[in-house]
Write a structure and sequence with these properties.
Shape: globular
Number of strands: 0
Number of domains: 1
Order of helices and strands: HHHHHHHHHHHHHHHH
Largest sheet: none
Number of helices: 16
Distance between the termini: 24 Å
Length: 396
């Protein structure tokens, strides 16, 4: 099913809804952003294991100078090739930052779904039940895949922490953050944000957009300051996994989702524009530079998540003429959750075994492996959702 509105591109509007207890029309551009973001993250995890320190980090001082010095190009053509490699490596190694875009999109999606009526159809109890059935079954199956599947990197023993992780605890004890599958720390973060979402949604309704954003911004800065300078010092993983330190990104997504539901044409006119793109690049660049000191790191995730969301939203719109590319990215975006849950142990396993390859060979083989994992995880997520959400419909 597709809908359209006067003055907007129909293909920017909606695509078919995923099977679920309360089917909502999907936004195609948002699925494209999801698809690009998760593929960026997955390729980053492959490349991180493949590179293993052989390239300088893109946020390190004098990145290009260091990269060119290691390349030692002997001609102008070699210099251009080296610059191209430096750009490719830099962009790839920044793939982990796309996690912030998923935080923004989570706030967007939840608020967009509720903004029309102002409250869940079956009350907040029913809303929590549907969220649990959306999150947990695929997450549990990912644990089973980790235990029984070959070709996965396994650095941790199966002990009492497996039960904690199975229940959704990715915070305490501190080592849980990277236990078994380090990517699962994001599950814990989303679970925390879902738990407090009803309070945030009511605050947005009562306080209005400006006060809501101001309160969430102040809370985020204060929380990150306390964690950085008083409790965990520079433990970035702990900071990232605590919802209070990522509240701005989620709140920003909520505000955009509310505005998009209330006045879609106005949001599209402003979000998909050259001015917004330039603003997104400026905000994202400020986030990159904020890496350089502990104090400015207080603002890093908020700046990067906000700026990168705007950038990728505009890139998603630019993909419209490439219909097959757009459709493929949207498909990956629809099933990005399953790919996120299963990919990293495979990325660690295969990426580490491809270190002897040259970069072109690595890109080709890694892309093929990612394609296989993507298709398999999409089918897995679809079947699990059909079972779990079908059970919810029967119960209703």
């Amino acid at each position: 099913m597709q809908t359209s509105a006067k003055g907007t591109d129909p293909r920017l509007r909606t695509t078919a809804a995923e099977p679920g207890p309360s089917a909502q029309p999907r936004l195609l551009w948002l699925d494209v952003v999801r698809g690009f973001s998760i593929l960026w993250i997955v390729f980053f995890h492959f490349f991180k294991e493949y590179s293993k320190g052989r390239f300088p980090l893109p946020w390190s001082p004098h990145y290009f100078a260091t990269f060119l010095d290691r390349c030692a190009p002997a001609s102008a053509v070699a210099m251009l090739a080296c610059v191209g490699r430096a750009i490719f490596v830099g962009v790839t190694m920044l793939g982990f930052q796309a996690v912030g875009v998923f935080v923004v999109m989570s706030g967007f999606g939840l608020t967009y779904a509720l903004a029309k009526t102002g409250s869940p159809e079956h009350g907040w109890r029913g809303w929590y039940r549907s969220r649990v059935l959306r999150l947990y079954p695929v997450y549990w199956v990912a644990h089973l895949v980790y235990v029984i599947s070959p070709f996965e990197a396994r650095y941790d023993p199966i002990d009492y922490r497996f039960i904690l992780s199975f229940l959704g605890d990715r915070i305490f004890p501190v080592g849980m953050i990277e236990y078994l599958n380090p990517a699962w720390w994001f599950f814990g973060l989303i679970l925390e944000l879902y738990l407090i979402f009803p309070l945030l949604f009511r605050l947005l309704q009562k306080a209005g957009v400006r006060w809501f954003l101001l309160i969430c911004a102040a809370e985020t800065v204060l929380c990150r300051y306390i964690l950085l300078f008083n409790i965990f010092r520079t433990n970035g993983m702990v900071i990232s996994a605590f919802c209070g330190s990522r509240l701005w990104e989620f709140a920003f997504g909520m505000v955009v989702g509310l505005a998009y539901r209330q006045n879609r044409e106005w949001v599209e006119d402003h979000l998909f524009s050259a001015g917004a793109m330039l603003g997104g690049v400026a905000i994202y660049t400020a986030g990159l530079y904020s890496f350089y000191s502990t104090f400015t790191y207080i603002f890093t995730d908020a700046l990067i998540g906000t700026g990168l969301f705007v950038i990728l939203a505009n890139l998603a719109r630019l993909s419209r003429p490439m219909r097959r590319v757009e459709a493929a990215l949207a498909y990956v975006g629809v099933y990005s959750y399953g790919l996120y849950l299963v990919h990293q142990p495979y990325a660690t396993y295969f990426g580490g075994r491809m270190r002897a390859m040259n970069m072109m060979e690595f890109i080709v083989i890694a892309s093929a492996i990612i394609a296989v994992i993507t298709v398999a995880s999409a089918r897995l997520e679809r079947y699990v959702n059909l079972l779990s959400q079908g059970g919810l419909r029967r119960k209703k």
